[in-house]
Design a protein that fits this description.
Distance between the termini: 30 Å
Strand content: 15-25%
Helix content: 10-25%
Shape: elongated
Length: about 240
């Protein structure tokens, strides 16, 4: 990759701005001053800007504790989105949410710069589990459990069989493999029990980090990243 393209991708400045930075002699590559914007670089190279080492990884994977009140989108002209909760470098790198959570739904949201990974994780054929805690209006029954297991007919499609575990009279844990618009809410709605609060506890092999507070994020560990790629069927393991 060209050096000016990498610097721009990291959100340092525009391509032309990065060329000016290089021209001013502010960048060192592997210990040597470099001014050539077309210099070929990789993530393995060490790049210093004004004497500080840059994190020049172009591929990033994140876990966000999505709070209520923000949209799962890259940008919106009127409302705050999940990308507004983190440094601009992730937007510059092309980080995107994997699937979506409704504006008022909270919990784990995975974001990645790998578009193929994101696509595979939400593809219906991959059958990646998502676990939600749902608080409803009314009392959950064994009939609800059986209905979820059978697959609930909705107006435009029939939801695939899902697991419902009752943990309190008005609260259940739901495991689904689809992620269609308002699906969990619509499934409970079809049972006459509107959802009052919805929180996603896990996505595929990853559970929400207990150390994160609403609105906080962290990058995934190597082990977590590998687990996601396995879930997406993108490894030989």
């Amino acid at each position: 990759m060209r050096l000016d393209k990498m610097l721009s991708g990291l959100g340092i400045a525009s391509r032309s701005g990065c060329r000016e930075i290089l021209k001013a002699g502010r960048v060192r590559l592997n210990g040597e001053a470099v001014k050539d914007p077309g210099k070929n670089v990789t993530e393995e190279d060490t790049i210093l800007l004004d004497g500080k080492i840059l994190d020049n990884r172009m591929t990033r994977h994140l876990m966000l504790y999505k709070p209520a009140g923000v949209l799962t989108a890259k940008e919106d002209p009127k409302q705050r989105t999940v990308m507004d909760l983190m440094p601009a470098v992730y937007t510059s790198l092309g980080c995107m949410p994997v699937g979506r959570l409704d504006k008022d739904t909270t919990g784990i949201l995975i974001l990645t710069t790998d578009g193929d990974l994101a696509h595979r994780l939400i593809a219906p054929g991959r059958h990646v589990d998502k676990v939600y805690r749902a608080q409803v209006e009314g009392t959950l029954t064994t009939e609800d459990v059986d209905a979820f297991e059978a697959g609930i007919p909705l107006k435009d499609f029939t939801a695939l069989p899902a697991k419902l575990e009752i943990i309190a009279p008005d609260t259940g844990l739901v495991t689904v493999q689809e992620g269609k618009y308002h699906q969990v809410k619509r499934m409970f709605g079809a049972r006459g029990k509107p959802v009052m609060a919805l929180h996603r506890l896990s996505f595929g092999p990853l559970a929400l980090d207990d150390a994160l507070l609403p609105g906080q994020y962290r990058e995934l560990t190597e082990e977590e990243t590998a687990a996601l790629y396995r879930a997406a069927g993108m490894t030989d393991e």
